[in-house]
Amino acid sequence: MSTSSDPRTPVVGTGNQVANNAYSQAFAPRSAINMQRIQALATRAASMVEQIRGRLLAPESRKIAPTYSTAQLAVLCGVDKAHVNYRVTKGDLPSGKLTPSGGKREFTLAEARVWAQAYRQDKMRPNGQRAICMAIANFKGGSPRRRVPWCWPRA
Q: Can you spell out the DSSP letters for the chain?
């Protein structure tokens, strides 16, 4: 890169390289966009979306329900892991499946729901009761945000 003593003389390699003639001559003029080109781009984009979707949802193109470990199930039910192991040996709740190595027990979503219903029976809505929906609207400035939810269980 050369420098010049006169500040008005442009230095080679600096400045706006896009406006430089050498840069604009290096690229050929763009071809016209027609319907065949648009159709080819649409086909290519659809193919790429399908490939990405296939990779994200592999091995199948649909979502699979999660499985829960014994520790996760214990947290969900509000008990410790040893209590879950005890109830598995008792046999009154679903026992899940052991992993192929045999070191870990996994529960399906349906099994976890049965466990949660058994342990959270007192917190569940009674049969025949209608569900309610609550909404909170916090207006800007001076709204007692902490007091409103605190009062609901006591009402």
A: ----SSTTSPPTT-S-SSS-HHHHHHSPPPPPP-HHHHHHHHHHHHHHHHHHHHHHTTTSSS-----EEHHHHHHHHTS-HHHHHHHHHHTSS---EE-TTSS-EEE-HHHHHHHHHHHSGGGSPPTTPPP--------TTT--TTHHHHHGGG-
